[in-house]
Design goal:
Number of helices: 27
Subcellular location: Membrane
CATH architecture of the largest domain: Up-down Bundle
Pfam families: Sugar_tr
Main location: membrane
Radius of gyration: 29 Å
Protein name: Organic cation transporter protein
CATH topology of the largest domain: Growth Hormone, Chain: A
Structural class: mainly alpha
CATH superfamily of the largest domain: MFS general substrate transporter like domains
Number of strands: 4
Membrane topology: Multi-pass membrane protein
Shape: elongated
CATH class of the largest domain: Mainly Alpha
Strand content: under 5%
Length: 602
Amino acid sequence: MNKRDKKCESVQEDKRVELQSMDDVLAHVVGSHGLWQCILLCTGVIGLPPYEMFSIFGNAKPNVRCRMQDDMESLLQNKTFEEATQFIQGQPTNLDVVYSYLPECYHRLSGKLNSTEFGSLSNLTYASLYTPVVQRCPNGYVYEPRKDQYPSSVIESFDLVCDRAWLEPFSTTMFMIGMLLGFYLGGWAGDRFGRRPTIIFWYTLGTTTGFLASFSPNIACLCLGRFILGAADSARLTVLYILVFELTIPKWRSILCSFWTMLQSFCARAFVAFLAYLIPDWRWLNFAMTGVGFAGVVYFFVGPESPRWYLARGESKKALDVLVSGYRYNHFGQCPPKEELARLRTFTEMVGSRNTATQMDAAPDAETRRKRGFVYWIKSTSMWEFFRSSELTRRIILGSLVFLCHIYCYFGLLLYSNHVRGNVYLVTVINSATALPGTLLSCALYRIFSWRKRPIIGVFTSAFLTSLVAAVCTLTNVDPKDIVLTICVGLSLLMLESGMDMIYIYIPELFPTLLRSKGLGFCAGFARLGSALCSFTNALDTSIGHGVPIAFYTVSIALVVVALLPLPDTRGYELEEIVERDKQLEWNSSEQFGSSISVHRV
């Protein structure tokens, strides 16, 4: 039998399959992994610039010293930056002196010097040149980019040093808090108003804000812009990830998820490093990132609504139109034959009418809702179910801790690139490249082993060991060029990337079907608090000592392993239903064709 005969036989077999679920429709009629799905995935990635990478370049820390009077500054122009800094700070009598203040924020030059004496500094004594008491910088600061770091910085633009230094990590924290808010808003809006309107709204808001933030006149406007960008980025990513899941079948979800990870975590981030290399100004870099993301406007014309969402609302005609459109994409413009069209129409009408009837029967009347009041609202959220069972409470707490510590370490190590003593562009590309082997490793481990928890513990243990080596070598100054640090951080990110892929599969299996989406959503949303803290942790590298943040991340990875130990191993199957299905809760939750995992990838 030749290939053509086999293909014809396969087509005939597909026609004989009874369409009982949306997975059957996608697998045997529309297509589960064709051009339709690829266009959606690619437009989604292109329209999602990795704004979290902006902090690596835009928040680069330059060298700083006090700006003196104009006459003194003209004299210091003939000196190097290091010589000028040493001159205005004064040479300490004890070379082992430890400053109790930030040296770049003060000077010790005598205020009695006048312009006539600047030209004869060699004739002045040390006592007449310097004062014993340090003085704050009177005229602002002078900046110089550090070697191998991004030459432009929001620190220089807005003087985020000394008593304003906390605003630099705060801008990153605002972005992460925005992502936390957008995570929940995107999931709620996607279920309430539909996938397509939600994506379009947050795309428009995010793109507009991205362009405006590039011309922020002060740090307050930049923080506000970063907050909105974080919310828009997270909300779009949430709904797009759901939509990709809903337009394919379980067999292909892991492959599409891996492809998404490689594009978003490696290609997009490496491209940002390339843009930063070409554009040495943080404002135009942010503008260029938004400009590239503007290509996502293609979704306005080709992006579909989820047919599962339509069917869950009983809108069978709209669901049929989406499926027919998907068929034409996957079959390169061909319309479905009359027989296939009839099968699709029969399926959508059957499921749509069934879901409409179910919702009408299950929904309580207005009088019942009024009597129940606040209690009804609390129960309708179904979050209270996590606290009816001690086992569920334990799992939600430990699962949240796993996500929190993981995201804290992952983003912390990723954004630590501008603290490593090496070329920031090369370090960023190396760290981004860990997404490739990390994703392949997670796929291989879950294909070889039936366990869910043990491979996760293995990769986090490996991440702990590599981070421990990096912390020890850096804190003891064994590796002054940070070669070991760069390698170990890259290996840790590889393991954390692999672990992230696996916990997004393992954690949902810890919860019963009714609570699985909300359980994973709560854990993943809570984890954004960790990403908000990591920018302040990285600031310790300057204020306390080089390598201190790595020690914090090492301890955090160890906490992930400790939190995983008490949890059960699901081995890839769903656990028993721990809570009893309540009709009211069942009405509020999504039906079979509308359910999805309302979370996004980091």
